[in-house]
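Batch manifest line 697
LIGAND: NDP
JOB: complex structure
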Amino acid sequence: MQKLQSYIHGQWVSGSGEGVPMVDAVTGETIALSDTKGLDFDQALKYGRKNGEALRNMTFQERGLMLKKLAFYLQKRKKQFYEVSFRTGATKVDSWIDIEGGFGNLFANASLRKTFPNQPFDVEGDPIDLSRGGRFMAHHILVPKEGVAVHINAFNFPVWGMLEKCAVNWMAGMPAVVKPATNTSFMTEAVVREIIKSGILPEGSLQLISGSARSILDTVESQDVVTFTGSADTGRLLKSHRRLLEESVPFNMEADSLNSSILGEDAKPGTPEFDLFIKEVRNEMTVKCGQKCTAIRRVIVPENLVEDVQIALGKALAKVTIGDPRLKEVRMGALVSKDQVQEVHERIQEMTKTASLVYGDLDSPKTIGADANKGAFMSPVVLREDRPFENIAVHSTEAFGPVSTIMPYKNLSEAIELAKMGKGSLVSSIATNDDKIARDYTVKAATHHGRILVLNRESAKQSTGHGSPLPLLVHGGPGRAGGGEEMGGKRGIKHYMQRCAIQGSPTTLTEITGVYQANAKYKEAEKHPFAYHWEDIQPGMSLKTHNRTLTDTDIVNFGNLTWDHFYAHTDITSLDGSIFEQRTAHGYFIISAAAGLFVYPNKGPVAANYGLEEIRFLRPLYHNDTIHVRLTCKEKVDREQKGQELPSGIVKWYVEVFDTNITDGKIPEDEAEEKEALVCIATILTMVQKKQDTFTE
Ligand code: NDP
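JOB STATUS: finished
ARTIFACT:
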């Protein structure tokens, strides 16, 4: 029998043991043997750390483009992955979530490159001034950790489970060692084989252990990050591993979660919300045969609607056809293994000590195109627990299959309490068209959930659903759900980086961060900064303009031109009791006049005005005040060429407008004097042409 290989130390290798059979969930046939005996996990971790340098040295822009390229590459080969996925029991829809949902994570993380600086590390948040004179300050930077990300994954999403994590650690600049669950590792292996073949990632960025790896944590180090998805028991065991404690290795856990969905009191039968609720519960029970960490396990409904929900859900489930997942007419395929079916049956038996079984049974179901006795099939099962405050098994027993329990509540406070009895969940949802109910539920239940979805007629058409974790949203939950947090856009990427507070002068911090910091020394430009190409512009490059006096007529004319007739600009008899002393220049006039001073009129490398990020008016300017401007390069953000346009990048310019009058009409003699006269700051963006393209897709 063929052995599944692992990819470590830059090569595909097989174990030296007898191997464990991996079984087709639909036919019961053995697919291959998983064997990791004799593989040197410590060497794999060391190899990842050593080779991680290539990723660490790439800028966010380069990493993002790499992910995008990989996503397109895999997307082209998706058909072959679907064929393998059917053997895990997954239907086409289930496989789409796993396979293309995984690629979606690569795309979404790739897009985040635009929100990071054009360098290998991030500069986070606002600068912090630590002195009155502006000569000592602090900032926070985040650098890629020098270790490996070790991902121990569950069986249910062999592709998505890998890519939702790897997309994030690769964006951060960290390599990964992936250890999928043994029984579906053949699916993960099929995708990893293509990733390696593509040559898109620097060697060492991805290693795969196709099967058991009990000693993998024995040699982890403080620069590594470990993530785990699976059962709470295994999670707790790994979390308390001595090596993790000794080396302070971050450990992110995502375990069993008894997610709830609430039917709002307003969502009576006949309302769109009632129908949406039933559809959502049915979907969550049957997609992936309910083997989803986000599936709805607890269906919490107003006590007078329990019968209605039970009947409607029963009718919806009766339409669910079970069988060979390759067939179009089949809605629900097989569970991952017969052992998993047995496990789910045992959990149902635990819960039915108090709850009653009101839909489905534990016999082999009727199947289409597959032998029910050979495959891991079971019917959806609905339980009903009428005393959910006394009988708590339904809040603590996770039947990881197509199983949900209906339970009643009297008022919203009870619904919130029941939701919280799950002791921390990944997700909860509420179907209501009453935004007051939505608000009360969300704000009070948020402590116990990583995500809350409000379903109503307005959002329904575009809703991504209760069970879909999205790359830009946080995925994880408190307490029982593991207490971890994955994805979440930039938040997730930062889990793989070390945050470091840096202190020093603004000039030094400008050099370190690559971002001009207010009060840093200017680098006077030899010619107008707008006359330079992208490559020749550096943060700190600066221009001081000539002066302009803002006259009374200018202010009146600006008001007439724009129709902005706010009293401070037009009616000097109305200023008593206001913060203004004289006719005041419009803020928009100040920034427009500033642009008039700093813009370089000749045709040059500046292709376009790209926008304005921030603007502050620090104090009023009156008629006859004279201003001058400082234009300083704050930061450069690279971008790839689009279509036929000329290659260009974005330059952010820090604009400071000064009141020249403060210095008696003279040009300020030193920077300290100049700072006192600051009246307006802004960051403007220009698109600046490059001499040559630095990015190709
Ligand atoms: P496990 O917790 O047994 O396994 C999860 C992962 O951990 C697998 O890759 C497994 O590898 C690995 N693992 C187990 N023990 C160790 C160890 N000592 N050292 C290193 N790695 C280890 O979960 P299962 O996948 O078997 O699923 C069991 C139950 O977990 C389900 O029935 C369900 O209740 C729950 N579950 C919850 C999920 C969630 O996201 N909430 C997802 C999946 C499962 P190997 O396969 O090689 O043993």
